[in-house]
Amino acid sequence: MATQALVGTTGGKAGSVELDPAVFEAPVKPHLFHAEVRRQLAARRAGTHSTKNRAAVSGGGIKPWKQKGTGRARQGTIRAPQWSGGGVAFGPVPRDYSHQLPKKVRRAALCGALSLRQREGALLVTAALEVPDGRTKEAVEALRGLGLDGKQTVLVVLAESDPAVERALRNLRFVNVLLVAGLNTYDVLRHQRLLLTCGALDAIHARLSATESES
């Protein structure tokens, strides 16, 4: 079982924690990343786009001119697609873009993303992230003490909601906060660094461990 250095508030080593190999030493498969990220982004689409076809456009009930004898092409309605102000042919209609992936595929993609960050050395684990007053200045100092100076994007993962920490970090453009329950492949991949608390690490092990997935 692999171990990960526990980072103290001043950036030094404050011990070590064990990493579940099923979660942090999983195979890295880019095609699973693509499938899961595509599923997540598709589910976020509103799908409210809409156009009117020739039947939905008002007016045009009368034939513009008689069928024969004018020298012009025959027309049945001024609401046909070839007319200005007419209906749209094969235009978009409201639809649901979401689709499903097997749970094992989604779990494999998330474990692969976590393993990739661990392999790159972009994973940080700290005992706790404390911002007593919930001030952004305190959060910046805490992150700087952990070696995160704002030059790279950071995903902070907490075991439980902490209003003070979330309030302090929400003003930082390079930082996003997630709870373990909402941890996903897309957010792990789009951030360059991953910061976990010990509580979050335990919760991730409980959520994604091999024994849990087999039950």
Q: Which CATH architecture of the largest domain would you pick?
A: 3-Layer(aba) Sandwich
Report the total helices: 8
CATH structural fold name of the largest domain: Ribosomal Protein L4, Chain: A
Q: Would you identify the CATH H-level superfamily of the largest domain? A: Ribosomal protein L4/L1
* Biggest pleated-sheet summary: 6 strands, mixed
What integer is the average pLDDT?
Answer: 91
Q: How much helicity do the residues have? A: 25-40%
Low-confidence stretches: none
Provide the domain count: 2
Beginning-to-end CA distance, first to last residue: 22 Å
* N-to-C series of helices and strands: EEHHHEHEHEHEHH
Bulk shape: elongated
Strand residue content: 5-15%
The helix/strand class is: alpha/beta
Q: Which features characterize this protein?
A:
215 residues, Ribosomal Protein L4, Chain: A, 8 helices, 2 domains, six-stranded mixed β-sheet
